[in-house]
User: Fold NAD-dependent epimerase/dehydratase domain-containing protein from Chrysotila carterae.
Amino acid sequence: MDVPSLIWCSCSTHLLCLLFFLRLLFSVLAVLHLLGSLSRWLPSLSKLWFHRCPCKRLWPLAVPLAYATSPVSNFIRLGPRLVLRPLRLDVSTHEPTSPHARLRLFACADPAMSESKCVCIVGVAGFIGSHMLEKIIRERDWTVLGCDMVAPTKIQELLGAEKKWAARFEFHQMNIVEEPQKLKALIARADCVVNLAAICNPSEYIKQPVNTINSNFTDAQDCINYCVELKKHLIHFSTCEVYGRTLSSYGLDAKDEKNWLLDEETTPMIMGPVSAQRWCYACAKQLVERLIFAHGTENGLKFTIVRPYNWIGPRMDYIPGVDGKDDGQPRVLASFMTALMKGEPLVLVNGGEVFRTFCFVEDACDAVMRMIEHPDKSSGHAFNVGNPNNNIQISKLAELMINMYSKITGKPKGTTVSISGEEYYGKGYEDSDLRIPSMKLVKKQLDWTPPTSLETAMEATMRVFIEKYSDKLANLKRSADEAAAAPAKKAK
Ligand code: NAD
Ligand code: UGA
Assistant:
């Protein structure tokens, strides 16, 4: 064989070897991919089987199967990303945390874990913020950059229980109005921004209307502008109060659904006169919605607006004198709990004649998760997020809570007292009559329906309030009784 033929022969042998090796590599990768996909679905299949399988003796096998397969799936899907991801800071020490902490992810059995994300939550230390944080950390492998102007007491309880969260959560105590550049830096690092920061307690709308308008409109603008500039998905929290009062409350036919059912696309927004200061909150929220919408059409902002309908759950608001101002007036859930735990009558504003639909915060946060995970379906929309099955008159809510409190604690049933809105909140108080959300849009776009009944949500919430506060309130009462008895003792 001549030299060129020899060279050609050797080259073609090498080429063939290389091709063979590449083919082998691709086959191995294909098998791994197949295994990854299979193991990803096995947990859900086994869960399904767990619920459906008629042979009860085989049920116990389903859960171990789910847990055994998910580490394989999570390792194959998340391993490289986790190794490459930069270290996060510990919330309390601000020291880098061990990357090994992330190994725990491999034990998560939820096959719904999707693309890893970084979410910036503004107002993370409040009621909804604390639940969004908890849900993200427990159920996803995402990172959360949180900020709030108050100390992280509500979330510290959660972090305290599971220090391992620190690997995926940063907290910055800051006022977004005073530190806009810091806010911008956080937004720059996130894929998506959830803005919850606002004054949102009706007693404040009357006491500090200027702050209420600024907080809900003016102070939200930096966040919006940074999302426009940095091209981030903004999920902004508005309120169901933007609808104002229903058409039926103005005398239109109550039998016609369109006169009371609140629909994102068709219902007009009707509020009282300017002197009825209660509506300053709803007007500010409505204007900020319109501004966000305008940035969507003019500047391409990717946005989603959330209109919550009285979300309730643990960690909502505060108990006056315990972890809030002595003379504070929290929203109705915490107000009624305060009265029940103090053994005082529950105050019914204007007889408690109006209605509210209450939604369990855990269900509601699931809707927000869907918005974050499916920007293609959530962008450009304002969504009602509430539970139309949990519609109740406030006087009936008081009754329900009185009975439930007595059932849980074994104490005698509480009482109610009626008071005018002006006397309770001050001049300018008006009220929404009925707030029932249309579920059409949220069901169509996000396939979301809230499963939890009012009774279940209320019992779970009340038990947490009782566990957290009843001892503290009893101690306060004892000290007050002792202080009151002291002068009498001295006189003797
Ligand atoms: P919340 O008061 O518990 O939480 C709001 C958080 O924002 C607080 O922790 C507060 O400290 C923070 N914040 C306010 N201004 C800030 C600032 N300038 N800088 C940094 N942090 C700031 O209220 P929530 O119930 O969690 O409500 C969150 C959002 O949802 C609000 O925008 C509210 O209007 C809206 N909303 C809530 C409900 C509900 O059912 N809870 C209903 C309708 C609308
Ligand atoms: C609130 C706030 O405006 C916002 O946080 C939010 O936008 C909205 O609810 C919401 O959660 O969707 P509102 O429902 O009026 O508005 O607030 P609550 O303080 O929870 O009051 C509910 C009803 O109970 C009102 O009619 C109020 O007058 C009444 N109430 C409240 C009482 O009868 N007694 C109380 O002690 C407190």
Summary: The radius of gyration is 28 Å. The CA atoms of residues 348 and 418 lie 5 Å apart.
